[in-house]
Structure formats: structure tokens, C-alpha cells
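Journal club prep — side note

Before the paper discussion, L.F. wants everyone to see what a predicted structure for a comparable chain looks like in C-alpha cell form. Sequence:
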Amino acid sequence: MTDETDDGRYQTYRGNILQRLGLVSPAIELAGPPESPVWMHPIEFSQVRAVLHAVDPRHMVEWGSGGSSRAWLEALPGLVRLCSVEHDPAWGQRVRESITDPRFTLLLRPPPEHAPEPEHRPGDKQTAAAHRAWCMRGEDEPELMRHYVDAPAELGITFDVALVDGRARTHCLRKAFALVRPGGVVILHDAQRSEYHAAVEALGGGLYLQPWVQGQVCLLRVQRA
């Protein structure tokens, strides 16, 4: 059973009686296989996959790697290169070891030593607040994650599609517009977050897709003279 809210977000009612009563948070429903999940709800994953099939990119860049990286390679036989930028060394190593497709390029760009990413322990409000503050620094301070944002430019490739789903997303959006060809598409995940809205509007606005559950998808068409 599902119900849609006024903002287009679907609430799912599944699980045991405590979850249905709202006393316990339901488990996050993720797309992809259990051994390599995509951190998107199946609705959002289907939206992104539909866009990718329509564009049929030859070169794609994503900020934020994981199960999605494998999914895009499997879904797009015409893809020549997937460039994935990751900030977490341990996670990046796991992704690198799990994908043997020669079309995959992973660029690992960890945070600077003077500003490491704080640990976020689930259920711990103090660590959650510290982690949130660090993430917001990445949105507000261009220099903090510039090496991460600028990493795809090192390849000298013009991309057809960019997926922004990692850190410093406002700056990644702007960089994506410089790296994606005219007529190409930039996809922003978790677009419901208010900290991204000004950047979207500054780039000409975007199409916010509905419905969504975990993180809204926004599409931006690259238009340059």
C-alpha cells in the first residue's frame, strides 16, 4: 500500500505492525541486488535509468560511486567510459575491487587532511550533527572539495551525462555544466534538499521528477551558446 503526499513524495507502508504504526522506522527500500545495492529507491532508480536509456550516453561522469556504478555499466551497452569520483578511500577501494569492466574509471579524491570527514554513527545525534556541518561546509566553501569537484576535468573528456550524487553537490552541478556537451543532461539526486535549489536555479532551473521516496531526481539540460 502506498500514499502520495502533496510534494509528490510517496510514503510506503510495509513491514511489521510497529513500522505501520510509525513506532519504528521502516527499512530503506533500495534498488539493485542485495550484494550491490543502489542507494536510490526503486522509483528513483527507474527514473534515472529511463533518462539514461533515452540519452544513450557514450561518456558519463558521476560524483559518488557504488552499486549505481555497476548498474549503469550493465544497463548501457553503448557506454564507452564511466568516470566515477569518490571521496571515501575505503568505500572507493571496495567499489574498485567489485567492478572489473574496463569502461570504468574511478578517481579517488579524499577530503583534505586538515578537514577530514567526521564519523557518523547511526542513531548518534552528536556525530550526525558534526557530519551534517561538515557536509554543509562542502556546499558553502568551494575550496574544501575543489580537488574532488574538478577531478573529471583531468581526463579531458566531454561527457553526455553527469550524475551528481556525492559531496559538494552545488559545486559539482556547476562543474558538470562545464564538462557536459550542449544538449546533454545533468541529473541531481536528493534534489529536495533546499541547499541545492539556488544552484539549480542559477543554471537555468530543472525538472523535479515525481513521485519520489528517498531522494528526488532533478533533470537539467545543458544549454550553452
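L.F.'s comment for the group: The longest strand covers residues 180-189. Keep this in mind when we get to the figures.
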